[in-house]
Design a protein that fits this description.
By secondary structure, this protein is α+β, with helices and mostly antiparallel strands. 19% of the residues lie in helices and 43% in strands.
């Protein structure tokens, strides 16, 4: 019986070992950088031999390690009977080297371990004066939006798209206030919205990023002229303002027509239409809601949780609500300065 069990285990061992003997290890690193820059987002790729789509491998880096992929779901590329799985790491350690932790890989047939790997870490030797802190293989400004922030400043919003980029660290030198919103990663692709405040007289903005492929700084100059999207503190586009005025005039005209028609015909249907249009006009011309804001309330640049704070309300005030968005209210403060406050900062009494 013991001999039978031994032979069975030996047979199974030979069966599972044959692929290893014939084609080498089923898993290995096909790409591991030797040197990366601080804050750089870099790829690490695992080669899977004899790939079986019915039994794909599973991966798990040592959870004890402080170094982890930015996304636990790798990017997969299939090439015949081979597969390449790519994880992205960020080099944000404060040491001269980082250790890619032990990787456990398994499926129904194999359980395998890839040992830790050491990657050297270095600082950029020189920095461009307009360096934004971003390292990327490519970066593009998809769109630009300029809004009036106050009497002498504009709020600029850049929609960015980059590959292998640390957009979360972006900061353009010499802007008054800035921040990143809507950061999304999809494999190597990173998109984000970057906003900042600058003097309204400034007609362009210049910044640079470090291209990790060409290993050089690339300068981006963004024109801010003809990008104006609002002309007043409500952040409404001129076309939207014109349409609202036109809508009011049309309703006034219709109300007058229905009133005359009713007086001439005494037909009740015209009276109903007159009452409806009048009710809509009353609603449109109603004064904006007024709220009380607590002393010390934060005035945010944008209606988001991660938005930067432009200032704090120095005393309890009562002001009109210009706009609402989720749990934020847009208000006007001193010197025509507008911003967003949270609902929790509204006076309770």
């Amino acid at each position: 019986m013991i001999k039978h069990n031994f032979l069975t285990k030996l047979f199974l061992l030979i069966i599972f070992a044959l692929p290893l003997l014939a084609g080498g290890a089923p898993y290995s690193y096909s790409y591991m950088p030797k040197v990366v820059y601080k804050n750089q987002l870099f790829p690490v790729t695992i080669l899977v031999k004899h790939y079986n789509p019915q039994d794909p491998p599973r991966f798990e880096y040592d959870t004890i390690s402080l170094i982890q992929p930015v996304d636990l779901k790798p990017v997969k590329v299939i090439n015949k009977d081979e597969a390449f799985y790519t994880f992205y790491f960020k080099a944000n350690a404060n040491t001269k080297r980082i250790e890619i932790p032990t990787l456990s890989i398994w499926n129904l047939n194999y359980s395998y371990i890839l040992n830790p790997q050491i990657v050297e870490l270095k600082e950029l030797e020189k920095k461009d004066k307009n360096f934004s802190g971003v390292l990327a293989s490519n970066l593009r400004v998809d769109s630009t939006k300029v809004d009036t922030y106050d009497d002498s400043h504009n709020l600029v919003t850049l929609n960015l798209e980059a590959n292998e980029a640390n957009l979360e660290d972006m900061h353009i030198p010499n802007v008054i206030d800035d921040g990143i919103e809507n950061l999304k990663r999809d494999g190597a692709l990173t998109t984000a919205t970057y906003y900042f405040i600058i003097p309204s007289k400034q007609k362009s903005i210049i910044f640079s990023y470090f291209n990790t492929i060409k290993r050089d700084f690339k300068v981006k100059k963004v024109s801010l002229e003809n990008q104006k999207s609002s002309l007043d503190s409500n952040n409404l586009k001129p076309k939207e303002l014109d349409f609202k005025k036109l809508k009011k005039y049309i309703l006034l005209g219709l109300a007058l027509i229905f009133a005359i028609a009713y007086l001439l015909t005494k037909d009740w249907i015209y009276l109903i239409f007159f009452i409806l249009t009048t009710a809509i006009l009353i609603y449109l011309f109603m004064p904006k809601k007024s709220i009380c804001v607590n002393e010390g309330a934060s005035l945010y640049i944008l209606p988001t949780q991660n938005s930067n704070i432009s200032l704090r309300i120095d005393k309890q005030i009562r002001t009109k609500v210009l706009k609402t968005y989720k749990n934020f209210n847009k208000i006007e403060y001193k010197n025509s300065l507008s911003g967003w406050i949270k609902n929790e900062d509204i006076c309770k009494n």
